[in-house]
Automatic annotation (TrEMBL):
A cellular-component GO term for this protein: cytoplasm
UniProt KW keywords: Acyltransferase, Transferase, Tricarboxylic acid cycle
Entries under Pfam families matching the protein: Citrate_synt
Biological or metabolic pathway of the protein: Carbohydrate metabolism; tricarboxylic acid cycle; isocitrate from oxaloacetate: step 1/2
Family, similarity comment: Belongs to the citrate synthase family.
Protein name according to UniProt: Citrate synthase
Catalytic reaction list: oxaloacetate + acetyl-CoA + H2O = citrate + CoA + H(+)
GO biological process: tricarboxylic acid cycle
Catalytic site: H279, D337
Database matches in NCBIfam families: cit_synth_I (TIGR01798), PRK05614.1 (NF004126)
SUPFAM superfamilies to which the protein is assigned, alphabetical: Citrate synthase (SSF48256)
């Protein structure tokens, strides 16, 4: 049941909802989640079907435009994205200002926000055409910037994008290619990367998307809004979970130690949680996790690491947790990030880049929500508070 409080506010109604557990902040036509039944739809299409039949750029088109593209529209869309993959040469200088060991998410917060310093035309986004260009710039430049973060950390030269490759293949090339040795794209690996992008593309009003909407509600430009989403995504309770999962699996180290970690997760005096378990909305299963697990199987088989000890620990951890009354009663199931880290590690992507890859993929979701909001009438977001401080008091006499 939905109670619309808009008209009641004037009469003095005030709701208190920490964590926005039951408060809708907007109407949206982009993504639907039925947490009780493990359903995720983008514009009405089930995520399982999109993961099987579409690639990431088609899903981007769907999220922005509301319909799947025809073959001709998809071709035009892909080629326009490719026109925007380069970044301004001066933006390269930003990287030199960071320490080599800076976390790539710290760099991403800075360089994506800095895009607004290069595209003044997008400052006036009242025009639909300018919004569209901003979308292309973001989709196209995020992989370039993400790969540059990695190259900067390893001291290798930045690689220019290759527009003869598809979206995922080009990203892998910019990550792993060098001027001396071109990267040979493995189609199974590229397909898995593309699927990771599809599964992370949007997830309605999560913390980072809500942050983007809130920033956008003040009229901030799209690049600044996306940078705010990147900052919100970074935390381990949200996008940082994929990094935290892998670190946890490495810390467990051996299947024999799983019960010890399960026990710690149940102990309320220990802040430890099983990373990659639980979700605010999914209380049955996360449909993305199922697809991710299958993709994980495919990639490990292709790369000949089916017996990867971390994958064995992950599978056993999942099995034990799903039989444990604590996790069953609290409806804690593996979420999308439980298996994504194992795939990324097998592909050779360092742990510190995991959340950056999530940010790349989610950029289209953030953009679509911002675009939906600014395309109709909207009010500045202004949450209220329940004040629990001092009542008014006089300044003490000296
Ligand atoms: N391990 C152990 N216990 C847990 C876990 C976990 N992973 N997750 C929740 N719980 C317990 C809590 O301790 C709490 O117990 P209590 O009722 O006895 O106090 C109960 O389950 C409810 O937990 P909340 O934190 O209130 O649930 P909330 O909906 O606020 O949080 C969240 C959801 C943040 C995802 C949480 O499950 C969590 O921290 N999981 C681990 C981090 C993670 O994997 N995040 C990725 C989310 S998916 C994404 O962003 C793409």
């Amino acid at each position: 049941d939905v109670i619309d409080v808009r008209g009641l506010v004037e009469e003095g109604l005030f709701t208190y909802d920490p964590g926005f557990v039951s408060t809708a902040a907007c109407e949206s036509q982009i993504t639907y989640i039925d947490g009780a039944n493990g359903v995720l739809l983008h514009r009405g299409y089930p995520i399982e079907q999109l993961a099987e039949k579409s690639d990431y750029l088609e899903v981007c088109y769907l999220l922005i435009h509301g319909e799947l593209p025809t073959a001709e529209q998809a071709e035009e869309f892909r080629s326009t994205v490719k026109n925007h993959t380069m970044i301004h040469e001066q933006l390269r200088n930003f990287f030199n200002g960071f320490r080599r060991d800076a976390h790539p998410m710290a760099i991403m917060c800075g360089v994506v926000g800095a895009l607004s310093a290069f595209y003044h035309d997008t400052m006036d986004f009242s025009d639909e055409h300018h919004r569209e260009i901003a979308a292309f710039r973001l989709m196209a430049k995020m992989p370039t910037l993400a790969a540059m973060c990695y190259k900067y950390s390893t001291g290798q030269p930045f690689m220019y994008p290759r527009n003869d490759l598809d979206y995922a293949g080009n990203f892998l090339h910019m990550m792993f290619g060098t001027p001396c040795e071109p990267y040979q794209v493995n189609p199974v690996v590229a397909k898995a990367m593309d699927r990771i992008f599809v599964l992370h593309a949007d997830h309605e009003q999560n913390a980072s998307t809500s942050t983007v909407r809130l920033a956008g509600s003040s009229g901030a430009n799209p690049f600044a809004c996306i940078a705010s989403g990147i900052a919100a995504l970074w935390g381990p309770a949200h996008g940082g979970a994929n990094e935290a999962v892998l670190n946890m699996l490495l810390e467990i180290g051996d299947e024999s130690r799983i019960p010890e970690f399960i026990q710690r997760a149940k102990d309320k005096s220990d802040p430890f949680r099983l990373m990659g378990f639980g979700h605010r909305v999914y209380k049955n299963f996360d449909p993305r996790a199922k697809v991710m697990k299958q993709t994980c199987d495919d990639v490990l088989k292709e790369l000949g690491c089916e017996n990867d000890p971390l994958f064995r620990i992950a599978r056993e951890l999942e099995r034990i947790a799903l039989e444990d009354p604590y996790f069953v009663e609290k409806k804690l199931y593996p979420n999308v990030d439980f298996y994504s880290g194992i795939i990324l590690r097998a592909v050779g992507i360092p742990v510190s880049m995991f959340t950056v890859i999530f940010a790349m993929a989610r950029t289209i979701g953030w953009f679509s929500h911002w675009h939906e909001m600014v395309s109709s009438s909207y009010r500045i977001g202004r949450p209220r508070q329940l004040y629990t401080g001092h009542t008014a008091r006089d300044y003490p006499s000296k």
